[in-house]
Specification:
seven-stranded mixed sheet, four-stranded antiparallel sheet, 21% helix, globular, EC 1.14.11.77
């Protein structure tokens, strides 16, 4: 009998798992249960994992798949090529809804995020379920989205940086130092569950074949539906917490209500496949080669 306890956190997304000490030595049966919970709940949370360090975080992540490089453009944490150091003080502000690294042709399968330093209040993370977002759309809108494709890029809308400090500007420069652009289906078919999910988020800049104004209006309309509160879960971080999310079925964002207080988390991403649309067409890289970031998942 399993020692794991899995309790939903919200109605459509999220579950907390207790009864496990994370690391690279988990039995195969426990890993299988964790993977099943991830597919079912889209994001799973573990409290009290203070024993984890950089090496054991990567070792646990490797049980879920092959870890990628830390990021296609942002340097890794010193001493560990797989860890992206998400330190608010470094200018990494992720206050818009996004799915990780969708500007490449093989976005991560999953992300494993560990809290290192978090403020006493504020700095929560929100996730939204892009599968239920699709399922609760009117049939007419689902039919439209099934046929659309969107271009995602890491190139900034530099108007957003007006008034930003030097640290944020330098981070933006590094983030966009190599241009990546990929055309993805707006609706992808999940390779394990067969569910349909909406693939958009902040890296989606335009809809293929549509004018700029029409693209912007449609993306805004769809994103407003994706991020309706009924599709979301909110996690209050404590040191030692770990969150794992299915990057193929979610978007997320940080709540920036913590001022200048320290907030630092370490992220490892797991190599993913090339998304495939309802019509069977895969995503297509338009600029940039992501081979150094991520192998193609089997």
């Amino acid at each position: 009998m399993s020692s794991l306890s899995i309790a939903p956190v919200a109605g459509r997304i999220g579950a907390q798992i207790t009864g496990v000490r994370l690391g690279g030595d988990l039995p195969a049966g426990v890993v299988a249960e964790i993977r099943l919970a991830l597919l079912q709940h889209k994001v799973i949370f573990f409290r009290g994992q203070e024993h984890l360090d950089e090496q054991s975080q990567v070792a646990f992540a490797a049980l879920l798949g092959e870890p990628t490089a830390a990021h296609p453009t942002v340097p890794a944490l010193d001493g560990n090529a797989h860890i992206l150091d998400l330190d608010y003080r470094s200018g990494q502000k992720v206050d818009r809804w996004h799915t990780d690294v969708t500007f490449v042709d093989r976005p991560p399968l999953a992300s494993v995020l560990r809290a290192v330093t978090v403020p006493e209040a504020g700095g929560d993370t929100l996730w939204t379920n892009t599968v239920t977002a699709y399922e609760y759309l009117p049939a007419e809108l689902r039919d439209l989205l099934d046929r659309l494709r969107a271009v995602h890029t890491n190139q900034y809308d530099y108007a957003r940086l007006a008034g930003a400090d030097d640290t944020a500007r330098e981070h933006a420069k590094v983030f966009a130092s190599t241009a990546f652009e990929t055309e993805h289906p707006v609706v992808r078919v999940h390779p394990e569950t067969g569910e349909r999910s909406i693939l958009l988020g902040d890296f989606a800049k335009r809809l293929a074949g549509l004018s700029g104004s029409t693209s912007a209006a449609l993306i805004r309309l769809i994103q407003e539906h994706v991020t309706e509160v009924e599709n979301t879960v909110r996690w209050r971080w404590a040191p030692g917490d770990v969150a794992v999310w299915d990057n193929r079925a979610t978007q997320h964002r940080v709540v920036h209500d913590f001022g200048g207080r320290p907030r630092r988390l370490h992220r490892v991403t797991i190599a993913g496949d090339v998304p495939v649309g309802v019509d069977g067409r895969p995503s297509v890289a338009l600029a940039g080669d992501a081979a150094a970031y991520s192998p193609l998942a089997a």
